[in-house]
Amino acid sequence: MAGVIVEVSSRKFGVPFECPCCGAAPEVDVRVVSRTSGKALAFSYCRRCVAHVSAWESAGVASAAVMLLGILSAIVIAVAAKLWLGLVVFVAAATIAWWVRGARRAAATKVCGASCASPHLALEYRGWSGQASSFSFQSPTFAARFAEQNQSLLANMTPQLRKLLDGYRKARLAVPTPAVAAGVAPPPLTVKDWLARLETTEGTVARRVALGRALEMIAEAAPRRELIQTVARLELAPLLERLARVQSAAQKKSLLERAIADLGVDNIPDELEAVELQQLQARVAEL
Ligand SMILES: [Zn+2]
Ligand SMILES: [Zn+2]
Question: How far is the CA of 107 from the centre of ligand 1 (A)?
Answer without folding.
Answer: 17
